[in-house]
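Quick question: what would this complex look like in 3D?
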Amino acid sequence: MTVAGASLLATPHPPAPERPRRPRTGYLLLLPGVLWLVLFFLVPTVALVASSLYDPAGSLFEGYQMTWHVQNYADAIAEYAPIFGRSLLYAAIATGACVLLGYPLAYAIAFKAGRWRNLMLIAVVAPFFTSFLVRTLSWKLLLGDNGFVADTLRTLHLLSPDGYLLATPLAVITGLTYNFLPFMVLPLYASLSKVDPQLIEAGSDLYASPITTFRRVTFPLSLPGLVAGTLLTFIPASGDFINSELLGNPRTRMIGNEIQDLFAAGALPVAASLSVTLMALIVLMVLVYVRRVGTEDLV
Amino acid sequence: MTSVRGVRRWVGNHLVLGAALLVLLYMITPVLVVILMSFNDPAGRLGYDFDGFTLDNWANPCGPYQLCSSLVTSVEIGVLATVLATALGTLMAFAMIRHRFTGRSAANVFVFLPMASPEIVLGSSLLALFVNAGFAGQLGFWTIFVAHVMFCLSFVVVTVKARLHGLDPALEQAAMDLYANPWQTFWRVSFPLVFPGILAAALLSFSLSFDDFIITNLNAGQTVTFPMFVWGAAQRGVPMQVNVVGTVMFLVALGLVLASGTFRRRQPG
């Protein structure tokens, strides 16, 4: 997101006491927005689930028959299971890379940046200032066969002379990591900036090594940000198809590519069943993850 | 002992800072490439190398077919969607922070859900709705608008809510005690105080709308937005003018952020 995202995540105010008001005004204020979300978020979700049970024989313009064709799911999973696996794997690796890159950055901004803090925060959100697609295309350039990165790695003998980077899983994961990194850094920074430096000092006063202090004090306090960050990275990354299309090859296709192409080809029921399956997998993984980490106050 | 610890601390401090700067470099490099390539004079049609310096792309940004018309479409949709999403979202944020009613936390979760769904799922749900409603033939400007308002709304609510959270309700109560009616209280007290949050929400909303590809692409019909133009061009060879647009977007956004920073510092409190 933008700087707005940073400030909203960093606002630590407790709810103030207020006088009770008539609930009717509250409902009236809420109504138009909720109505919009019901019509264009909730109803579409129902329409998606319904569409996933249509008879696949039909077309976008002539319509489909509702036949409770559960077989769509069996077909979709049988045919696309490896691609689901690949999507979730790429998204998980990218999320892990975002943690490894994002944590030191968020930590440095929170504790070491001093007067450079605002400048560094702007640099974190700056990539958002220009188009997602244009930025991803510039990775195509950077990773290209004669590009800067490949040349450097060849000079360092880290890449064989006929080796390449573009159109590999590595390129796709690099792109995913790059595109979703700010979503990791901002919530982590929001959590870390709330950590009282006196707690860290107390750790060292009590003869804990910096590593122990980090492990026992700082890190646990940053968990809410870490959980929010991993979700904000993993969820969009698992459905993304821009990176795999622009930086990958036919063997790096992710589930987003398939859903997009099936819709473009007019195969609504199969595409819908893939979408529903993706959503179900994500909800399942998020529930397990959040329960494991044990953070409930996400919203 | 002290000096060893001092050295270790110095290394520790600068190790993290150094790593952070490397990560920032990773984040900013593609933007620098975009700026550089806006001055590229490509030798072939596929401009994937910097072949020579030229100002032609800047002199003739609308050269490539559909580039500027797609930009106009994106700006139109962005402005309209931002106005509606900001209005609806601000009302919702006020309801959630300033009013107590049954179902408030359910509403909170409901507003959060679109932000937690992958775009491909949001986009395909909307398409499923439009197809079922017999709208498959009318996909275009207005279906994109509807979609953009939907996904911007949640972000507006969260942003304005954060600002409202930080405001003391006593200010509004004081206005009421001084016989201002709710309407006057809102326009004279609440709105000016929350305005920075609303402005941030509107900017966020515009940039989300302007940059969206996945949801838009599924619900666009024949309409072409700027990201869709770039996508289409990526299959054939990207005209360098795309980088000019990218650079201008970057500079405008950077200017707005720096300006709002100065503006915020000048405000009392």
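Answer marked as accepted. The first helix of chain A runs from residue 3 to 9.
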